[in-house]
Amino acid sequence: MQPLTHHQIVALVAPFSRAGLQVDLAASQRLERQLAFRPVQHPAVDGTHPALTETLWLLAPEGEPFTLRRVLAASDGLEAELEATGSDAGALLARLAAVPVQRQWRQGPGWVMALSHRVTGSTDAAGGGLQPTRVAVQLPGFRLRWTPPPVHSRLGELRLAAADPQARLPEDLLAVLGYPWTRLVAMDGAWIAHLRQRGNGLGAFAQVEQRLVRTADHLAATFTAPPALFHRRHWGARWRVTGRRSIPALLSLGLVAAAAAVPQLTLAPESVLRMLILNAPPLLLIGFFCLREVPRIEIPPLPRPLRQAAWQAAGDTAAPTTHATLST
């Protein structure tokens, strides 16, 4: 790969110069064919976003389409990226400029959300033609991160990390919001859950963004209240979660009971019911592996009030290491 020449740089930055942007040669990487532009400051907007620093990066690989990336960074390290790919650098700049800063940042009581997107459609498409690539939410003492599902999956990952390495969270912390949210599992120094979505189209991702806002509101309200209130507020929802988690085990027990009852039935050799019963095991096995989400057969714990006095130690800002998930 040949580094960018002076003449190539002049040609590439022409549309950016006309828009009032200046190339930052010191930050650019000519060998990697990446151009950086001088940062632009955005003042804080109450209820929308904090003070932000905007940086543009243009990747110009040899013989391939350009990639323009906009990075909006807050002082606490939270970042929102916007990326577009195409053969016309000026058109890419216009497409990114059509997405306001407010589209990629959300604020609510006790939380700030940064949404990163990839441009995949026109501005009048669902979700503004933007496909989320990741979402980060800053909460008091916690940070939530969402990543989209892989190909042929409908489960986006929710990763919740705490500043306090001794923090403890209930398994149904997010599942009480409804079926799209799965249980929390302590893993790799954080807690992992999943957010179900319908399809991978722009409309489905627009719904995901709405659910992430609801998730942030729920977590902020939960973490600003004593843990004991969680059970009182979500008593009914916690029992519904337990019921949903019990369904695979109950179905399995039902199948075992049905199999035990088959010898007691008097069926003719040519009976259709007999044929269905004999072929049920392989059909159920095939159906089991054809599911997008493999059911988890378990006996879930009964919901009980949380015993800890606080969600985490006061003033603890250490990086998360290992955590425990409360099963009761």
TrEMBL record:
<protein>
    <submittedName>
        <fullName>Uncharacterized protein</fullName>
    </submittedName>
</protein>
